[in-house]
């Protein structure tokens, strides 16, 4: 009880100094809990959606997926004849059966040819209005479509694009473009996570989405009273024979949730990873806080020891303070986490993914995880300072000798740090020298972890040298004040090292990712310059296939010398060694593709792969199966028959574009795949006539104006799009890393604030002998700047080493160019100085307000 009373008294006596450490715990716990609440809420939203929209039993064509995403490579959904509905209706236990038709391989545009597809990445669904939809949608304006001239849409899409009844919109599918006027608007009765839904009458939906009447993509079956879904499935399956896919509502919902859950899991674990980094940075802040508090209470601890307190009691006293800090920070963090989740939901709403706070899900495990993490991390971080406090000798403390300096521990720390750093460097070397990416990635991970830990451990040793160098370059220009700031930073290398290490971690990751991202862009740009021999690339940024009408518009554009189509087909390949490789892809293109994309070969000529009944394979596949020029490969196309194709070329694996592709001509593939099963184009290459590039570019964009789902890019556009895509990904990562950097800044603030308190008497003496308030504040600001620059120097150097090693590993995948983004690196280094200035504002202000006489009188 005495230990707890002492801990409580000390905690509240230093509540101001504890506040920033509590904020670090709060932020880390809040990010973890916010991530868990946000992803749990999304799961709840999708669970409700899938449960509400799934009929008791759903019948679909065999080619349909389990998730209801029925669109195939030819842009049309797999269908079944209309008489299936009658057969299902006659099955025992069926109350009702209704045929439906829908597709997600569509684009819907307004009268100005602007896409109405969700910007959040949600699907665009066009189908017939049916009884199952009527359960989850309520018509709030107008009426359901009754003929081909009418279409209905969901209320969210109508509001977003300011559409109303009577406006004309167009549906673009593989069959063609159909225009209709809005007849009604329907509102979701459950939360819509971001889909755009459009309804046609049944006959029109069949004609527009499939190209034929009398067919359906699904049959929604409702069970009679007392009949379970499983029993209904058995009865329907017996009635149909096994020619169709039959699923219960739970099976359909589970399949949909599994697909969504994969994306949510990736997002959740990525965000938790960044929260873990913030926790790691917070550890340094807490260690520094308790180390300095222990040092400041040396005399107090000595008195406690002198009157009978044991080492264990002193140790427990410090750990009890840490426990209290962890509990307070964690409780506040859990509450803040719910707020972060709500904020994320609002942010997603701005991008088009609607999440209702009515579905806010706070599982009991979330606060428990937050509390456990926060408390355990805080107590572990305080263990070393607590152990050091327990070692304080009563007589040494009463003489105010300070906390014991363990020279032996310093030597051990230096040796351990050097060994860990050396092991990390060796791991990075092995990664860069690896022959296989899988082996190299393991060495890279080991090298990153060991070098990071090594730099953290050896930080105090590095601080002595690097701070002097930085002081010479940065601080000496400020005269005596600059030299005093340098000496203050050098006074306690362990403290400076720990404070700098907190900032080092976040900046190391920033530098590493910047190097990797820049190298990826530079490598891809080099490959484009070397390989791509066409003027324009036409493709969809959302992954949609290119409709025949759009391809024809490209071919009809004036000024074109050639247009090359490019398709991807699924196939199983059987090689002469008797082995069958399932799930392979064959890239079918026009023969001009060999000119449009120059791909290096290790045997044969790529142009020969486009001869009749010929193909190319990539180097790794050829080596694995012993293929040479002239070898026969049996290719069983998924939607066609089997073909015996002759290997005419073997392409190099040392490429970025189309790495691992196997080519054949479209005319060859067309012999074995029926026209109605032939997939649509993935992309189209277009080359203008000599000297007409600029005019052709303008004409091509004009020709595809009615197809906003496709982008027309010349090589410059393509490089910029690639750079923007990687840049957006890096910006997202930098945003998540900002949490760790904020915690690191709090660490600098806390270190300086406690350092000012620790040096109260010294500051009073300096003021007494003539140091002005401005000079004092400048000294503290410069100390903060040099600590921040020290952490930045370590982090940027370490991160560039990681990034360069990662690029060497990626070179095995064709990324051959190493590019250091010096503007980014230099900008981050300079920004670190401003971070140091910002962190010093409050400590410097407080130091400047000290009363000189009171400061001198401080014990």
Briefly summarize what is shown.
The chain crosses the membrane at residues 269-295, 318-342, 362-384, 411-430, 442-475, 496-521, 732-757, 782-802, 822-845. The chain is an alpha+beta fold and 859 residues long. The protein contains 27 helices and 24 strands.
What does this structure look like?
With 859 residues, the protein is α+β, with helices and mostly antiparallel strands. The chain has four domains: 1-54 and 250-384, no CATH class; 62-243, no CATH class; 405-533 and 714-859, no CATH class; 545-708, no CATH class. It is 58% helix and 16% strand. The chain has 27 helices and 24 strands. Strands 15, 16, 17, 18, 19, 20, 21, 22, 23 and 24 form a ten-stranded mixed beta sheet that branches. Strands 4, 5, 6, 7, 8, 9, 10 and 11 form an eight-stranded mixed beta sheet that branches. A hairpin with a 4-residue loop joins strand 20 (632-637) and strand 21 (642-651). Helix 1 (2-13) packs across helix 10. The longest helix is centred in the N-terminal third of the chain and has 48 residues, at 249-296. The radius of gyration is 34 Å and the shape is globular. The chain starts with a helix and ends with a helix. It is a multi-pass membrane protein.
């Amino acid at each position: 009880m005495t230990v707890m009373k002492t801990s409580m008294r000390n905690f509240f006596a230093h509540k101001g100094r504890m506040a920033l450490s509590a904020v670090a715990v709060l932020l880390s716990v809040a990010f973890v809990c916010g991530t868990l609440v946000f992803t749990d809420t999304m799961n709840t939203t999708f669970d409700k959606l899938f449960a509400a929209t799934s009929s008791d039993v759903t019948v679909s064509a065999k080619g349909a997926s389990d998730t209801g995403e029925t669109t195939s490579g030819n842009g049309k959904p797999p269908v079944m004849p209309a008489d299936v509905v009658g057969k299902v209706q006659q099955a025992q236990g069926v109350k009702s059966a209704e045929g439906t038709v829908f597709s997600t391989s569509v684009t819907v545009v307004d009268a100005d040819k602007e896409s109405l597809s969700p910007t959040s990445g949600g699907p665009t669904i066009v189908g017939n209005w049916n009884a199952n939809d009527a359960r989850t949608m309520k018509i709030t304006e107008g009426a359901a479509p009754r003929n081909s001239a009418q279409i209905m849409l969901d209320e969210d899409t109508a509001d977003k694009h300011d559409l109303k009844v009577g406006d004309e919109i167009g549906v673009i599918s593989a069959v063609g473009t159909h225009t209709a006027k809005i007849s009604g608007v329907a509102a979701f009765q459950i939360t819509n996570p971001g889909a755009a839904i459009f309804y046609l009458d049944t006959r029109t939906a069949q004609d527009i989405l499939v190209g034929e009447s009398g067919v359906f993509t699904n049959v929604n079956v409702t069970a009679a009273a007392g009949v379970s879904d499983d029993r209904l499935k058995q009865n329907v399956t017996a009635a149909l024979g096994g020619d169709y896919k039959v699923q219960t509502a739970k099976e359909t919902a589970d399949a949909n949730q599994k697909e969504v859950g994969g994306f949510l899991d990736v997002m959740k674990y990525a965000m938790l990873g960044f929260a873990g980094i913030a926790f790691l940075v917070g550890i340094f802040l807490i260690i520094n806080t308790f180390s300095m508090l222990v040092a400041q209470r040396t005399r107090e601890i000595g008195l406690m020891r002198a009157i009978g307190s044991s080492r264990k009691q002193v140790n427990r006293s410090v750990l009890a303070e840490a426990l209290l800090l962890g509990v307070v920070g964690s409780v506040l963090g859990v509450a803040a986490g719910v707020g972060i989740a709500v904020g994320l939901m609002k942010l997603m709403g701005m991008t088009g993914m609607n999440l209702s706070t009515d579905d806010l899900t706070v599982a009991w495990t979330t606060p428990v995880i937050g509390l456990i993490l926060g408390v355990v991390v805080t107590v572990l971080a305080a263990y070393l300072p607590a152990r050091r406090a327990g070692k304080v000798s009563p007589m040494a403390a009463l003489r105010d000798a300070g906390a014991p300096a363990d020279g032996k521990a310093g030597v051990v720390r230096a040796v351990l740090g050097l060994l860990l750093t050396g092991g990390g460097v060796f791991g990075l070397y092995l990664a860069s020298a690896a022959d296989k990416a899988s082996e190299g990635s393991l060495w890279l991970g080991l090298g990153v972890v060991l070098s990071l830990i090594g730099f953290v451990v050896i930080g105090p040793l590095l601080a002595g040298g690097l701070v002097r160098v930085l002081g010479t370059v940065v601080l000496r220009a400020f005269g005596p004040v600059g030299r005093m700031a340098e000496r203050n930073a050098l006074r306690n290398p362990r403290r400076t090292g720990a404070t700098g290490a907190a900032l080092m971690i976040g900046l190391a990751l920033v530098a590493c990712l910047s190097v990797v991202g820049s190298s990826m862009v530079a490598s891809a740009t080099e490959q484009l310059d070397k390989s791509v021999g066409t003027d324009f690339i036409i493709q969809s940024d959302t992954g949609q296939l290119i409709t025949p009408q759009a391809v024809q518009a490209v071919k009809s554009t004036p000024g074109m010398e050639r247009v090359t189509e490019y398709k991807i087909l699924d196939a199983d390949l059987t090689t002469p060694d008797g082995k069958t490789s399932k799930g392979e892809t064959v890239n079918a293109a026009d023969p001009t593709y060999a000119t449009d994309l120059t791909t290096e070969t290790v045997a044969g000529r790529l142009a020969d792969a486009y001869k009749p009944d010929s193909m190319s394979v990539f180097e790794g596949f050829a080596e694995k199966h012993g293929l040479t020029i002239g070898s026969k490969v049996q290719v069983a196309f998924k939607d066609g028959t089997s073909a015996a194709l002759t290997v005419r070329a073997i392409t190099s694996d040392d490429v970025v574009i189309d790495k691992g592709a196997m080519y054949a001509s479209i005319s060859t593939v067309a012999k074995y795949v029926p026209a109605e099963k032939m997939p649509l184009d993935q992309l189209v290459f277009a080359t203008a006539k000599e000297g007409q590039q600029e005019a052709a570019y303008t004409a091509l964009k004009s020709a595809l104006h009615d197809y906003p789902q496709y982008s027309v890019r010349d090589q410059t556009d393509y490089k910029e799009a690639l750079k923007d895509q990687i840049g957006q990904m890096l910006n997202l990562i930098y945003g998540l890393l900002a949490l760790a950097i904020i915690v690191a800044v709090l660490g600098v603030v806390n270190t300086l604030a406690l350092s000012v308190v620790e040096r109260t008497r010294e500051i009073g003496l300096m003021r007494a002998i003539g140091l002005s308030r401005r000079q004092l504040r400048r000294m503290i600001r410069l100390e903060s700047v040099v600590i921040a620059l020290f952490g930045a120097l370590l982090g940027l150097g370490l991160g560039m080493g990681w990034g360069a090693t990662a690029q060497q590993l990626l070179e095995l995948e064709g990324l051959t160019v190493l590019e250091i983004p010096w503007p980014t690196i230099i900008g981050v280094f300079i920004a670190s100085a401003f971070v140091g200035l910002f962190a010093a504002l409050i400590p410097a202000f407080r130091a400047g307000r000290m009363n000189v006489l009171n400061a001198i009188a401080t014990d």
